[in-house]
Design a protein that fits this description.
The complex is a heterodimer. Helix content of chain A is 33%, strand content 19%. Chain A is an alpha/beta fold. In chain A, the strands form 4 sheets. Chain A has a 7-stranded mixed β-sheet, with helices on both faces. In chain A, strands 11-13-12-15-16 form a 5-stranded mixed β-sheet, with helices on both faces. Chain A has a two-stranded antiparallel ribbon with strand order 1-2. In chain A, helix 4 packs parallel to helix 9 and helix 11 packs across helix 15. The longest helix of chain A is centred in the last third of the chain and has 16 residues. The N and C termini of chain A lie far apart (62 Å). Chain B is α/β, with parallel strands linked by helices. Chain B has 2 domains: 202 residues, Rossmann fold (3-Layer(aba) Sandwich), CATH 3.40.50; 131 residues, Rossmann fold (3-Layer(aba) Sandwich). In chain B, strands 3-2-4-5-7-6-12 form a 7-stranded mixed β-sheet, sandwiched between helices. Chain B has a 5-stranded mixed β-sheet with strand order 9-11-10-13-14, sandwiched between helices. In chain B, strands 1-8 form a two-stranded antiparallel ribbon. The longest helix of chain B is centred in the N-terminal third of the chain and has 20 residues. The termini of chain B are far apart. In chain B, 53% of the residues are buried. The model of chain B has no long low-confidence stretch (mean pLDDT 92). Classes of the chains: A alpha/beta, B alpha/beta.
């Protein structure tokens, strides 16, 4: 008998069936008997709108949108829909980036080049500095330039353009109101995806928040993305729009068909609660939601969940109002804890809610290491870590 | 006198009364109106206790060698001394950047090329991405390149090289143990009075959100020499070394002549106190000292402790938390804007670890959330009055 190679013999015996671990991407699957760290069930998560009634009842939508229809879209389809609306309603909208013309590596720009023409939707060379530099110039000349950076990890060559040019245009223009690059939107897929490793997993949102001048927006779902992207395109300030790449296909929900905008710099309370406030944004919200469900059952507590939506300038009022009510707070994000969004939110909460706090503000965030391929799920906060943080806060 | 002379005298007198318009308003403190400035007076570096006015005070600073020869140096001379020492100490040390060969725009590399040759000390083209990229490659091959970015505001084109390459090198190498230790990226940073948008920035907080580099900011010539030598000769990871440019000429003190290093992982308590901890680094430390001196006169015996972080990342949590556990109140002061700055991280950590000890919220005093335009710099950065106000507010909470 020919013995199978060693890796084929490393099977896991569950007693009921054997499965071949080599065919199993161990780094992106959950342990067999997990209670908390089970995969997010996007089909039932309360964060997404599973019915059109739910999607259309969002009070932030205008009446004519709410009286319209909704359709089932995932995140990249919703982004595509928003881009299509923008391109058709405003001739000054341009969309460009690497591989954008054929539809984009995440399909966000599917069919847009064929529909709107290659002088409005086009490819650029492999040069983030050039893409963003060109976008700033185009925006200063009145275009609504939507630049795509293929992965947030690649945005750093454009950092000088964003921080030293785009963020400062309006300040430099002084009394000259016409000179702005407000039409600039830089879109990029961000965050861990399970197999992204060092260069397809980063979440650099906090880096753009330490220089005034840019708005940093991070939607949690298809319906949010459509509204926030349209708002970012219309916004008179340059915006950085980070799209959690793991949600491109995973998050599917009912999205209103009409174009609509959602308010920038406004956080949203996804779930009311009385004992503890969790503040997060993007993909970790789903993790938080799963942890909250288990924690509320196990500890008998009531947890409030807030989506920041805009990382900078962020909605201090909403967050502090919530923590003044609950007295406990946790901030959850993927990027590393030092000097991240959690640091700013925690520092502000302890300033504004000092006498109401019953426990220190905890930060549940990525560990201070790089996102290696096989250890991503230990690095990014998982359900167990958020659940633990809730327990620590309640028992403090 | 001729008519022309009278006219000239008149014009001269007129000019004399108009003289204030010719002074650089934005760089000087306001005078006149018959009132004496009480708080926002220019710092007197020749009397500052943060500087060693004589070698006798070396013993107050842990790590400084005592008993040996010392010279009176300003910050750029101290950096020059450190570079010279490093270049002599190890053949692997290189020194390059824009305008480095003739001595550098701040004279930090004066006479280094003539002494060590142009194979080790040389100019580069104007390309920060190239400067840092080349340094990474050289360090990967075993060299110790000490590169200069001409102003911290210009480091952003090199951001990808620093964050995606330099920071990740040791991680990617895994078990081989290879690292970029010895690579130092030096840059003048911080406000100088007339730097405006592009010669004033303090980007230290941005490099503390990606693991892999150390960020070091010295407060004085003697600190700079020791920390820079440690960064070049001892560090196992790349170091971003930010030199407060306003101190290049302003801060003058005794500096030991010999080779010495200071620890890259310890903050330093530069003034003991019992009732409030102020955490800061770089130039704002001098402003804090002025504010502390003014405030302590009115606090009825209560005292303020001042900590210099020195290494912004990874920062010395132990020292700061130990101090706050004694005082119960904390404030963080820095030039860069408050949002997501070093103050946020320090405040978030203190409230996590010392929650029950705190008698007041931790105050963050940073630059206002705007760009540093030429004319308004002194209103943007925390000045003595703002720090003084912060102290009074915390003490009264």
């Amino acid at each position: 008998m020919i013995r199978p190679p060693l890796h084929h013999r490393l099977v896991v015996n569950t007693g009921k069936r054997l499965y071949n671990s080599a065919l199993h991407r161990a780094y992106s699957s959950h342990p067999p008997s997990a209670r908390l760290n089970v995969p997010i069930d996007y089909a039932t998560t309360p964060i997404l709108h599973h019915t059109s009634k739910s999607a259309l009842s969002n009070p932030e939508l205008l009446t004519e949108v709410r009286n319209g229809t909704a359709s089932r879209q995932n995140l990249f389809q919703a982004v595509n829909s928003a881009l299509s609306h923008a391109l058709s309603s405003d001739p000054s909208v341009l969309l460009f980036g690497e591989d954008v013309a054929f539809g984009g590596v995440f399909r966000c720009s599917m069919n847009l080049s064929s529909e709107f023409g290659s002088d409005r939707v086009f490819n650029t060379p492999l040069s983030e500095q050039g893409i963003v530099g060109f976008a700033i110039g185009a925006a200063m000349e009145g275009a609504k330039a939507i630049a795509e950076v293929q992965f947030a990890d690649y945005v750093y060559p454009a950092f000088d353009q964003l921080v030293n040019e785009a963020a400062k245009v309006r300040f430099r223009a002084g009394a000259n109101e016409e000179q702005t690059c407000g039409g600039l939107v830089v879109r990029m897929p961000t965050g861990g995806v399970g197999h992204g490793a060092l260069y397809h997993s980063q979440s650099p949102e906090s880096l753009f928040t330490h220089i005034p001048g840019l708005r940093v927006i991070l939607p949690r779902s298809p319906a949010q993305a459509k509204g926030l992207l349209l708002a970012a395109i219309a916004c008179p300030d340059p915006c950085i729009f980070l799209e959690p790449k793991i949600l491109y296909r995973a998050a599917v929900e009912q999205v209103p068909t009409e174009p609509y905008t959602l308010p920038i710099s406004t956080a949203e309370v996804l779930k009311q609660g009385t004992d503890i406030t969790i503040i997060s944004y993007g993909a970790p919200l789903y993790t938080c939601s799963a942890a909250i469900e288990k924690a509320e059952k196990d500890f008998g507590c009531s947890v409030e969940l807030i989506d920041l939506r805009t990382i900078y300038p962020w909605d201090r009022q909403a967050v502090m109002g919530s923590v003044n009510k609950t007295g406990r707070a946790i901030v959850v994000h993927e990027s590393m804890v030092n000097a991240g969004v959690g640091a700013e939110v925690a520092a502000t909460i302890q300033e504004g809610c000092f006498l109401k706090l019953e426990a220190p503000v905890q930060r549940v965030a990525g560990w201070t290491t790089h996102m290696g391929l096989i250890y991503e799920r230990f690095n990014i906060p998982d359900v167990a870590r958020v659940y633990d943080a809730i327990r620590v806060a309640l028992n403090y | 006198m001729s008519v022309t002379m009278v006219n000239r005298l008149g014009i001269a007198r007129a000019i004399a009364t108009l003289a204030p318009l010719q002074t650089r308003n934005y760089a000087t403190h306001a005078t006149g109106h018959g009132r004496q400035r009480r708080l926002n007076t220019p710092p007197d570096f020749s009397k500052s206790s943060l500087l060693h006015q004589t070698p006798q005070t070396f013993s107050n600073t842990p790590g400084l060698p005592r008993g040996g020869a010392s010279s009176r140096l300003n910050l750029c001379q101290a950096i020059n001394s450190a570079l010279r020492t490093a270049l002599s100490e190890s053949n692997e040390v290189l020194c390059f950047g824009e305008d480095v060969a003739f001595g550098g725009v701040f004279r930090c590399t004066l006479d280094l090329q003539s002494q060590f040759g142009d194979a080790r000390v040389f100019n580069t083209p104007i390309t920060e991405q190239g400067i840092v990229g080349a340094a990474i490659g050289m360090a990967a091959e075993g060299a110790k390149p000490v590169v200069e970015i001409q102003f911290a505001d210009y480091v952003f084109p090199a951001f990808d090289q620093i964050v995606n390459e330099a920071c990740k090198f040791r991680y990617r190498e895994g078990h081989t143990g290879a690292n970029l230790g010895g690579m130092v990226i030096r840059m003048p940073s911080g406000g100088v009075g007339h730097g405006a948008l592009y010669h004033t920035q303090s980007p230290e907080s941005l490099f503390s959100h990606i693991p892999g580099v150390k960020v070091v900011i010295p407060r004085s010539p003697s600190q700079a020499k020791g920390l820079l030598l440690a960064s070049i000769l001892k560090a196992k990871d790349p170091v971003i070394f930010m030199e407060p440019k306003i101190l290049y000429r302003a801060a003058v003190e005794e500096v030991p002549d010999e080779l010495y290093t200071l620890p890259l992982d310890k903050a330093e308590i530069v003034k003991q106190g019992a009732d409030l901890t102020i955490v800061s680094y770089g130039r704002p430390l001098y402003t804090c000292m002025q504010a502390i001196a003014a405030a302590e006169k009115e606090l009825g015996g209560r005292t303020i402790e001042l900590i210099d972080l020195r290494t912004i990342y990874p920062w010395d949590r132990e020292t700061v938390l130990e101090s706050v556990s004694r005082t119960g109140r904390a404030m963080v002061v820095h030039e860069s804007m408050v949002n997501y700055g070093v103050g946020s991280e320090v405040a978030a950590t203190i409230q996590e670890q010392a929650f029950l000890i705190l008698k007041a919220p931790i105050k963050r005093l940073g630059g206002w959330t705007t760009h540093t335009g030429l004319a308004w710099e002194k209103f943007i950065f925390p000045d003595v009055a703002r720090i003084y106000d912060g102290i009074k507010e915390l003490m009264a909470f």
